[in-house]
Design goal:
Order of helices and strands: HEHHEHHEHEHEHEHHHHEHEHHEHHHEH
Radius of gyration: 20 Å
Largest sheet: 6 strands, mixed
Strand order of the largest sheet: 1-2-10-7-8-9
Mean pLDDT: 93
Helix content: 40-55%
Number of helices: 19
Distance between the termini: 41 Å
Structural class: alpha/beta
Oligomer: single chain
């Protein structure tokens, strides 16, 4: 990848520059709303629902939220990762030279979505590509990477095992490593999802102010206008795996923005490394969880951590259980009529079920919050979904 010294800093202006570079290669994915999901999100959980959880005996929070779903499951290759992949490769070609990049090729390691994205971007630009994937990766993700022209090399499931195999490929081929998140060019590319979401939410609210939690009063209350509020949304929440998307969204909104940025992780078996790292005051560099959210089985990377751990940029990271993730997937299918992979449902799971997050909204929101929820990807199959719900779901 382009050396960090040749990358622009993580700023809003550089997200705009990234978008100008990649917009002809990516889809402008839709933003969907649902009155039914707004009601679900704004209804307190029952005491019965909290029984047996860490929130048992606690008064359920009563937030008011209207949700705006940025549907990256409709993106090319089925996930937001194509944004960072194209930006990284286009910048690499610009700094290293097309001939050299095509001679050496590129390599990455991935649970699936970044690998597919890099494979398609590389094929589009005529660059050879190797993708290191866990042998237990979902078969459809492996086949997709291969269909886009990647040479897939298998590894163990942990990030350390994947990194070791990627290093071997580099030693054998001379390929240039393209990180899934630990590079400014990737983060800036992912941040373009937030740029689009803000523009689309502003347009939706201008056309129909009743989509806001404030209703038609938004039109008449100058203090609540998007320009005065620093953006049309009060908050945006994304899943956090290696952290590129969350850091990109936080880069777009910037420190001190009226739009708060939050992260969401699976809590199963230590997959919530970012949340635990924030509590401990240090980045956790190992994750060995086999959470159903397979795209989030890696620790947050070093550069995204610098953004996410800054409380001026990210307001917090919250966890969701496996059962809550599956419930959120089901709600999305039934209410929004969209199919997402488990990793993409984690953000909604936090919105609907994490009492700490819901209490934050209830305490800080006043009249309520308009919340952007980034659905990161939809790379799953009927067989995988069926098995999830057969296994106690």
């Amino acid at each position: 990848m382009a050396h960090l010294s040749k990358c622009g800093p993580l700023t809003k202006d550089n997200v705009v520059s990234a978008y100008d570079l990649i917009k002809d290669y990516v889809h402008r994915t839709p933003v969907l709303t649902s009155q039914g999901l707004n009601r679900v999100a704004s209804t307190p959980q029952t005491a019965e629902a909290l029984a047996g959880t860490e929130y048992e005996g606690r008064e359920p929070a009563s937030p008011r939220m209207n949700l705006f779903f940025k549907c990256e499951n409709f993106q090319r290759t089925g996930a937001f990762k194509i944004r960072g992949a194209f930006h990284a490769l286009l910048r690499l070609v610009a700094t290293v030279g097309s001939v050299e990049v095509k001679r050496r090729g590129v390599v990455t390691h991935s649970a699936g979505n970044h690998g597919q994205a890099l494979a398609l971007a590389a094929r589009t630009l005529g660059i050879p590509v190797w993708v290191v994937m866990p042998a237990i990766a979902i078969r459809s993700k492996i086949e997709a990477a291969e269909s886009y022209g990647a040479t897939v090399v298998f590894s163990g499931s942990t990030s350390q095992e994947r990194e070791a195999v990627a290093k071997r490929v580099i030693d054998e081929t001379g390929a240039i490593f393209v990180s899934s998140a630990n590079h400014a060019d990737i983060i800036l590319g992912q941040g373009t999802a937030a740029l689009e979401l803000e523009e689309q939410a502003r347009a939706l609210l201008k056309e129909n102010p009743d989509l806001s939690v404030l209703g038609s009063s938004r039109e008449n209350d100058d203090s609540k206008l998007a320009e005065d509020r620093g953006g049309p949304l009060d908050a945006v929440i994304t899943a956090v795996g290696c952290g590129g998307l969350n850091a990109g969204v936080a880069t777009w909104h910037g420190a001190g923005s009226r739009t708060r940025v939050f992260g969401a992780e699976p809590s199963f078996d230590g997959a919530d490394d970012c949340r635990r790292g924030l509590a401990a005051g240090r980045r956790i560099d190992t994750v060995k969880s086999l959470t159903i959210a397979d795209g989030l089985r890696q620790p947050v990377a070093e550069i995204p951590w610098l953004v996410i751990s800054d409380p001026a940029k990210v307001g917090g990271v919250y966890g969701a259980s496996e059962a809550q993730i599956k419930s959120a997937m089901k709600v999305l299918m039934e209410q929004l009529k969209v199919v997402v992979e488990p990793s993409a449902a984690v953000a909604l799971a936090v919105v609907l079920y994490n009492e700490d997050f819901r209490s934050t909204v209830a305490c800080e929101a006043g009249d309520g919050w308009d919340v952007g929820v980034v659905l990161g990807g939809g790379n799953t199959t009927v067989e995988v979904i069926s098995k999830l719900y057969q296994d106690g779901g």
